[in-house]
Design a protein that fits this description.
heterodimer; A: Gyrase A, domain 2; Cyclophilin; 2 domains; 4-stranded mixed β-sheet; 13 strands; B: Cyclophilin; 6-stranded antiparallel β-sheet; ATP binding (chain B); Allophanate hydrolase (chain B); CT_A_B (chain B); ATP-binding (chain B); Cyclophilin-like_dom_sf (chain B)
């Protein structure tokens, strides 16, 4: 028998599919299934919201009368869903690697700033899910060589567009916020614009790469 | 227009909030007491989702620069119109230059002010609600301040004075079971439902924090999962947080359960030091409670139709 995710009714009109207990050697393959399932459910037009998170999917129904149906069909959908049917978009995030903490991160790992940049840009990151603030993407794939404990003293304001590293993660701040991650660069790419038809550039399941911008007079001495 | 002479503690424009953007990290926002919003709007023959003012604690002063009709609901924050007392659950005609002032209340925390035709600010992402954290919606995405002008449409017609009675407050909140019941264990959950919690002064539109002397500490950490208004998170400190409309969309704390839809609006009115207790109910009981609330609203609408 194939291992099955746990499925719970959270309320009369919401469900949780939890796959975090599945013994997968590659967490990303489970996440890909979740994105494919999200995309499938979206097409049914029976949900107000579908929120993929870390190895889970929360489903908010428009009407409670479909709750039992979904409790029953989700397990078989999970078994049948093909991850290859889901295609995310790929984004290139132009980054000026001149963040306040890039030299700290380099020293911490006994690397040069150039080496930090080269390691950071070589990865194709997967957007696992969004949360924390509008447009903030949780990325998968930061090279272990750059894992850096968070700052002892969080900054009161991490500026909008900061590219930063916190422990095993890297991310981009869509708006000013307090935060304890190390700022290694900055991007002018708009990640969230509430007035735009598509308010968020990045969607769950997308991929992205950081592209260094060096011709704007940026150096990282 | 309504001109803000004094903004009080927290004055915001809200409607039912935003759906469809939670996967992008966008919170629901919207009235914490949608039930009060609905009644205030129906008293004026408005649409249920017309934008209203959410007045927290009170202590604000508003001047009307045109004629209109208003209705208040939610907490009684001792409002006066040009010095004359006015009451929640009733409609009042307002003339140009009249001033509506709020003192504060002995019970309840938030009052809802509806105006004939609704507040006319611009919709952002499908809602007129203020998202205080992400700073959009409402007026410039912030709480209203002295000098702000809130757009409304004048109304010069006659309006019959009608009233609605507010349903009683509950202190025993009904919950859907937790998806993490096995993880947290029966002793902790028993402890949870036998505790009388105090509402912390550290509560806001993101969530109500609950203080107590029992032991609910734990050391579980989870991968982040989707959370919504009504989700009760239990951080390792053991002090539960009931997420409200401005709460984040994903979180990594175990859940104690989810407040049933019919009871969630009660959290709009809890004040620091109020006591709250919880009880798990079945899905059938939760559905019945929702039907009862809908039935109440339906009867209220029928009664209004016969009066107007």
């Amino acid at each position: 028998m194939k291992p099955a995710p746990h499925i719970y009714a959270l309320t009369n009109s919401s469900l949780l599919l939890d796959a975090s207990h599945l013994d997968a050697t590659d967490r990303l393959s489970i996440q890909k299934k979740i994105w494919a399932l999200t995309s499938h459910c979206k097409c049914t037009d029976e949900f107000t919201d579908l929120v993929p998170a870390m190895n889970s999917l929360t489903l908010y129904l428009k009407s409670g009368k479909h709750l039992n149906k979904w409790l029953q069909v989700l397990p078989s959908l999970w078994n049948d869903i093909k991850t290859s049917t889901f295609k995310g978009q790929h984004h290139l995030i132009e980054t000026i690697y001149k963040g306040e903490d890039i030299n700290y991160v380099a020293r911490y790992h006994n690397l040069s700033a150039d080496e930090v940049i080269n390691i950071h840009i070589k990865t194709k990151y997967h957007v696992l899910f969004l949360g924390f603030q509008p447009g903030f993407a949780y990325l998968h794939g930061l090279d272990e060589q750059l894992h850096t404990p968070r700052r002892d003293e969080p900054r009161i304001k991490v500026p909008k567009g900061s590219v930063a590293i916190g422990a095993e993660q890297t991310g981009i701040y869509p708006a000013d916020t307090p935060g304890g991650w190390h700022i290694i660069g900055h991007t002018d790419t708009a990640l969230f614009d509430s007035t735009s038809e598509q308010p968020c550039l990045i969607q769950p399941g997308d991929t992205l790469e950081f592209v260094p911008l060096v011709n704007k007079g940026a150096t990282h001495d | 227009m309504i001109k803000v002479l004094k903004s009080g503690v927290l004055l915001t424009i809200q409607d039912f909030g935003r759906d469809g953007y939670r996967h992008l990290g966008v919170s629901k926002a919207g009235s914490l007491d949608p039930f009060a919003q609905i009644i205030a709007n129906r008293l004026l023959n408005n649409n249920d989702n017309d934008a209203v003012l959410e007045i927290t604690v009170g202590l604000c002063e508003l001047e009307f620069t045109c004629d209109t009709v208003i209705a208040l609901h939610g907490a009684d924050l001792q409002a006066t119109l040009d010095g004359q007392a006015i009451y929640p659950g009733w409609t009042y005609t307002v003339k140009n230059k009249q001033v509506l002032s709020f003192a504060t209340g002995r019970a309840g925390l938030r009052a809802y002010l509806a105006v004939k035709g609704g507040i006319q600010n611009t919709q952002v992402m499908g809602s007129k609600s203020t998202d205080l954290n992400a700073c959009f919606g409402g007026i410039e995405g912030r709480a209203l301040a002295t000098g702000d002008e809130i757009p409304i449409t004048p109304y010069y017609g006659e309006f019959i004075k009608v009233g609605a009675i507010a349903p009683a407050q509950r202190k025993l909140i009904r919950l859907h079971p937790s998806p993490h019941a096995n993880l947290l264990g029966e002793p902790l959950l028993n402890n949870f439902v036998s505790t009388a919690f105090k509402v912390s002064s550290n509560s806001n539109r993101m969530g109500v924090r609950l203080e107590h002397k029992n032991n609910l500490v734990h050391s579980h950490s989870l991968p982040s999962l989707g959370v919504s208004p009504g989700s009760i998170q239990l951080p390792p400190s053991g002090e539960p947080i009931v997420l409200l409309n401005d709460g984040q969309t994903t979180g990594g704390y175990p859940l104690l359960g989810t407040v049933i839809e019919a009871d969630l609006h009660q959290f709009a009115q809890f004040r620091p030091l109020d006591t709250v207790e919880f009880k798990y109910v079945t899905f059938e009981e939760a559905a019945k409670a929702k039907q009862k609330l809908d039935g109440h609203l339906h009867q209220f609408s029928l009664a209004l139709k016969n009066n107007l």
